[in-house]
């Protein structure tokens, strides 16, 4: 992942932990999703903008590698980097890293942009994002 990946800081909340005091595995997914939306917003794309254009981002596949436990009160940085290629899909690389530098989780995500009327992926997912973004470079576009 690039050192220039977008990142958002989150503090693990007690109610997000399981009976062993670890961050619940499903919450890792929520943190990754939160970082993706924050990344889009930082580039100037709001959810309402996507809906008005008749498109929306979709996750098609997620692979998570859990590296270290997280506990209530831990502060983490959740990164997000778009990886563009040809075709209807794109990749995202995401990491959850404690502020002491310890890697807690790695995500490899395959996504696309869904045409909400046709219910099909758009041919080039870069086009609607580039058209809506005030800072497309933040998304690697």
At a glance:
This protein has 141 residues and is of the alpha+beta class. 23% of the residues lie in helices and 37% in strands.
Biggest sheet layout: 6 strands, antiparallel
The unreliable regions are: none
Distance between the termini: 16 Å
| Rg value | 16 Å
Number of strands: 6
How do the SSEs run, as a string of H and E? EHHEEEEEH
Cα shape = elongated
Count of individual helical segments: 3
Rounded average pLDDT: 96
What is the helical fraction, as a range of percent?
Answer: 10-25%
Structural class: alpha+beta
Strand proportion, as a percent range, falls in 35-45%
Tell me about this structure.
By secondary structure, the protein is α+β, with helices and mostly antiparallel strands. The model has no long low-confidence stretch (mean pLDDT 96). Strands 1, 2, 3, 4, 5 and 6 form a 6-stranded antiparallel beta sheet that branches. 23% of the residues lie in helices and 37% in strands. The radius of gyration is 16 Å and the shape is elongated. The chain contains 3 helices and 6 strands; from the N terminus they run βααβββββα. β5 (103-115) and β6 form a beta hairpin.
């Amino acid at each position: 992942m690039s050192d220039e990946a977008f990142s958002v800081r989150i503090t693990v909340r007690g109610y997000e932990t399981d009976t062993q005091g670890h961050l619940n595995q499903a919450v890792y997914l929520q943190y990754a999703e939160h970082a993706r939306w924050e990344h889009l917003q930082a580039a100037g794309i709001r959810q309402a903008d996507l809906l008005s254009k008749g498109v929306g981002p979709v996750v098609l596949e997620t692979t998570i590698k859990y590296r270290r436990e997280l506990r209530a009160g831990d502060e983490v940085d959740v990164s997000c980097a778009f990886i563009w290629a040809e075709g209807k899909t794109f990749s995202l690389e995401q990491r959850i890293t404690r502020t002491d530098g310890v890697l807690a989780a790695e995500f490899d995500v395959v996504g696309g942009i869904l045409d909400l009327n046709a219910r099909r992926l758009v041919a080039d997912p870069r086009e609607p994002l580039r058209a809506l973004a005030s800072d497309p470079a933040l998304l690697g576009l």
